[in-house]
């Protein structure tokens, strides 16, 4: 219950920041209070005002057109011009008044000139959140595709705000900050199987069952080698599965760590691929090239909100697939369906047939995947800032000074430039307010961090034509970096 109350308080505070101090200030147009505001109040605010915000759109707090809200005004213009809004079921404005508003919006948009900024697209958003959180997650997986201009997903006209975009960004940014911690203890339950140390898997499966997890395995491991996974053709279903309980709320970050190698006893065998699926989502088709002496280490981070989570938990499946036909001298074709057309060259699969009981895996003419170990953390919360950054923030302690240092570091990475004392002040006040209401150090900082991610300097590309030289230079660096490497500058 307390978690849900704190979540509600965080959401309320963040929305206040988004709709208030996080937006850039601008001068109100003289016509706005006398003409435009009354029109919106009479015709629009019943559905998009303080009491009701259909589609996540609120118009009563506007006071003019700015670079940060021009896309919202574009939506208003489009709805008025097409007659879609107000709805036909409601009283319609006088045609002359409607045209006055349309003309005013068009004039204000022209006065702003060609847009010098645009919001981050889905790829850039994911890369930016990875950079600021230090988590290697696909944050944009749940977002809809971006609009395109001439086939490119970086055009400002194709990246206008949708009516529900604020709600979508709230979900994504909430997930981002919930994956990090400062002073809290780690909370993840870790499930481990090391197949190189035992011959009987019951040692692991019994321990997992006691903790609410389960595993469906085939065969037994080879001491010092690992658990061989027999190859299958694409389309055949034969896989290992591991199910671990999900955290409360079925939200959070799951980390899967694998150590694997390839076992190819006969020369000329093709490399197989390890198919990795978590919660019904295909994560990887990794080509296996590692050896017993130098195995491959694979790590996957995924958000539970992007997965199918069942009552019993999250299921992870591993399958070894050989995706091409091949022949081995001295062995007949396993596929007897088309004996008149020898394969390769024919239409069927070609795989060597052999007696699996008589020949051990280390001598079979097939490419085995060998699972050395598996480790599953079902609710990962990673310390922030990452140790690899070597950030000079001093000791992590529950003090306002420490919170300010962390907030400054977060803002500079999120906004992709240095920040001023005045820019930090609203977020510092939000943190202090939440602490005074009894919120913990970590939760109050997460709320402040999320409000930074909902602000215009994070969500939008700054313009290289910005009047402030420092902001303009960092804006140019950001645009070059996103263009060249698809990520923020270092």
* Mean pLDDT over all positions: 83
Helix/sheet category: alpha+beta
Helix content: 25-40%
The whole-angstrom Rg is 28 Å
Number of strands: 15
Please state the overall shape, judged from the principal axes of the Cα atoms: elongated
Structure description:
The chain has 490 residues and is α+β, with helices and mostly antiparallel strands. It has 12 helices and 15 strands. The protein has helices at 2-19, 31-43, 70-82, 95-112, 122-133, 165-178, 202-210, 400-415, 421-436, 441-453, 456-459, 469-485, and strands at 118-119, 180-181, 190-194, 214-216, 227-229, 232-233, 240-244, 253-263, 273-278, 281-287, 296-303, 314-322, 368-377, 382-383, 460-461. Strands 4, 6, 7, 9, 10 and 12 form a 6-stranded mixed beta sheet that branches. The chain is elongated, with a radius of gyration of 28 Å. It starts with a helix and ends in a 5-residue tail after the last helix. Residues 1-5, 11-28 and 343-348 have low confidence and may be disordered.
Q: Which SSEs are present, and which pair or pack?
A:
Blueprint (H helix, E strand, L loop, with lengths): L1 H18 L11 H13 L26 H13 L12 H18 L5 E2 L2 H12 L31 H14 L1 E2 L8 E5 L7 H9 L3 E3 L10 E3 L2 E2 L6 E5 L8 E11 L9 E6 L2 E7 L8 E8 L10 E9 L45 E10 L4 E2 L16 H16 L5 H16 L4 H13 L2 H4 E2 L7 H17 L5
Parallel strand pairs: 2-14, 6-12
Antiparallel strand pairs: 1-15, 3-13, 4-7, 5-13, 7-12, 8-11, 8-13, 9-10, 9-12
Summarize the structure.
The chain has 490 residues and is of the alpha+beta class.
């Amino acid at each position: 219950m307390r978690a849900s109350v704190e979540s509600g308080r965080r959401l309320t505070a963040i929305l206040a920041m988004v709709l208030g101090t996080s937006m850039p200030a601008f001068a109100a147009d003289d016509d706005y209070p006398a003409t435009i505001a009354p029109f919106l109040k009479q015709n629009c605010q019943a559905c998009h005002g303080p009491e009701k915000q259909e589609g996540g759109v609120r118009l009563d707090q506007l006071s003019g057109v700015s670079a940060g809200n021009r896309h919202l005004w574009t939506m208003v213009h489009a709805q008025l011009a097409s007659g879609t809004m107000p709805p036909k079921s409601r009283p319609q404005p006088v045609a002359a008044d409607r045209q006055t508003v349309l003309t005013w919006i068009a004039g204000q948009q022209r006065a702003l000139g060609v847009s010098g900024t645009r919001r981050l697209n889905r790829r850039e958003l994911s890369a930016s959140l990875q950079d600021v959180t230090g988590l290697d997650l696909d944050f944009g997986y749940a977002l809809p595709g971006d609009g395109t201009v001439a086939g490119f997903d970086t055009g400002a006209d194709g990246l206008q705000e949708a009516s529900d975009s604020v709600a979508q960004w709230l979900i994504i940014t909430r997930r981002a900050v919930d994956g990090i911690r400062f002073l809290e203890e780690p909370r993840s339950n870790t499930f481990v199987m090391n197949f190189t140390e035992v011959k009987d898997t019951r040692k692991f499966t019994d321990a997992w069952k006691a903790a609410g997890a389960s595993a469906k395995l085939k065969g037994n491991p080879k001491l010092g080698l690992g658990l061989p996974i027999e190859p299958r053709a694409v389309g055949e279903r034969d896989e290992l599965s591991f199910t671990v309980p999900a955290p409360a709320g079925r939200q959070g970050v799951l980390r899967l760590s694998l150590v694997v190698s390839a076992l190819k006893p006969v020369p000329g065998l093709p490399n197989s691929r390890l198919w990795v699926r978590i919660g019904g989502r295909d994560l990887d088709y990794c080509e296996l090239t590692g050896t017993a002496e130098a195995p491959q280490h694979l790590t996957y981070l995924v958000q539970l909100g992007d997965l199918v989570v069942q009552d019993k938990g999250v299921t992870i499946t591993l399958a070894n697939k050989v995706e091409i036909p091949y022949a081995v001298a001295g062995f007949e074709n396993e596929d007897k369906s088309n004996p008149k057309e020898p394969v390769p060259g024919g239409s069927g699969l070609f795989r060597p047939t052999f007696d699996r009981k008589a020949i051990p895996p280390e001598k079979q003419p097939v490419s085995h995947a060998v699972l050395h170990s598996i480790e599953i953390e079902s609710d990962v919360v990673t310390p922030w800032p990452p140790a690899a950054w070597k950030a000079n923030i001093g000791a992590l302690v529950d003090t306002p000074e420490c919170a300010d240092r962390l907030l400054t570091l977060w803002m500079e990475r999120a906004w992709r430039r240095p920040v001023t004392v005045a820019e930090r002040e609203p977020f510092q006040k939000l943190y202090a307010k939440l602490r005074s209401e009894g919120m913990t150090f970590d939760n109050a900082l997460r709320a402040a961090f999320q409000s930074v991610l909902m602000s215009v300097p994070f969500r939008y590309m700054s313009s290289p034509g910005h009047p402030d030289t420092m902001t303009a230079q960092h804006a140019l660096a950001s645009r070059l970096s996103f263009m060249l490497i698809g990520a923020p500058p270092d």
